Amino acid sequence: MNQSRTFRKINARSIRKQQGGFTLVELLIAAVLLALGIAGIYKGVSDYMSNDRANREMKELPSIITAIQQKYAQRQNYAGATTAGLINLGVFPQSWVVGATVQNRWGGTVTVGTATLVSANDALTLSFTQVPQAECADVIPGVEQNVRVVTVGGTSVKANNAQTDMTALGTACAAGGVSNTVVYTIGKA
C-alpha cells in the first residue's frame, strides 16, 4: 500500500503542474488585446454613425430649403418668417419638430431668422447649434449649392454665391469642436 500512496502523490503533483492555468502576464496580454479590439470597433461604429448623420443631413437640408422657398415663392421677401411659422407650414421633417421647437440630429436647436443680402429681408437664416466638427466639415460642402452664405461660429466660410473656402471651413469647424453653430443663409428661389 505504501507504493500506491507514493504513486498517487507523484501522480497528483504532475497533474497539478499540467493544470496550472494562465499566468498573470498571459492574462494582461489578453486584456490589452481585448481592449484594443473594443477600441477599434468603437472607432469604426462612431465613424459610421458620423457619416450616416452627415449623409442624412445632406439629403434633408436641401428638401427643407426647397420647401421654404416654395412657401415664400409668391412673396417679395421673407419678412415675418419665424421658426414657429415654418413649423406650422410643415417645412421641417416631423422627426425634427419637438413641441414648438426644431432640433437637429445632434440635439441642438434650429432657429429661423431673416437677413439682408441685397434688399431688406431678401434672405432667411437657418441657425444650427451643437454641430460636431466632423459633420460640420462634411455637410457644408455637400449643401453649398443650396445656400447663399454659410458661417461657422461667426466665421464666414462661404461668401454670397461663392464656393466654400475649404481652409476656412476646416479651421472654423475645428475651433468649435463638438459644438459648432452653423448658420445657412438662403435666398429667394
From TrEMBL:
> What Pfam families does the record tag this protein with?
N_methyl, PilS
Keyword DNA-binding in annotation: no
Q: Where is the Type 4 secretion system PilS N-terminal domain?
A: 53-186
Assigned keywords, A-Z: Membrane, Transmembrane, Transmembrane helix
Instruction: Cite the InterPro entries for this sequence.
Output: N_methyl_site (IPR012902), Pilin-like (IPR045584), PilS_N (IPR014911)
Transmembrane region(s): 21-42
User: What is the protein name stated in its UniProt record?
Assistant: Putative type IV pilin protein
Q: What is the lineage of its organism?
A: Bacteria, Pseudomonadati, Pseudomonadota, Betaproteobacteria, Burkholderiales
